[in-house]
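REVIEWER CHECKLIST
Item 1: Sequence provided? yes
Item 2: Single chain? yes
Item 3: Sequence as submitted:
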Amino acid sequence: MAIPVGTWHVVTNLHSSSLNITSVDAQGHITGTIQVGPSETHGVSGTWDATKKELVFTYSLSLGTGPIIPLPLTFTGYFFQGAGQGLFNQPPGPVTTSQPWNLLAGTFQSIFIFPGSHPNGWVARMA
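Item 4: Structure as written out by the authors:
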């Protein structure tokens, strides 16, 4: 099974983003974009492992206006489908449906690991 291509609503530490997976090739390489702010969109690339139902993707934030310092972020998530009644028997968002819905959940971390840093959680639902 390939990961569904399209827009995912992502929540990370009280921030919302839109992940748009635009393609998945036969080897599991994914490409797309992530919009992390109203005018801030970054390209993403990564891999999809259909056996593990695991998605790993990376994008880089740029810090500073002088020499740009890239801050790469790596996300690892696992795909599953929820029953139509929703997560914890509640509808996902304002939509009530009897159809299964797609969910990703996992962790992310900067490639630059600072003392005391740790992975953070994220969750996404297909739009």
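Item 5: Key structural point noted by reviewer: The first strand starts at residue 6 and ends at 12.
Item 6: Recommendation: ____
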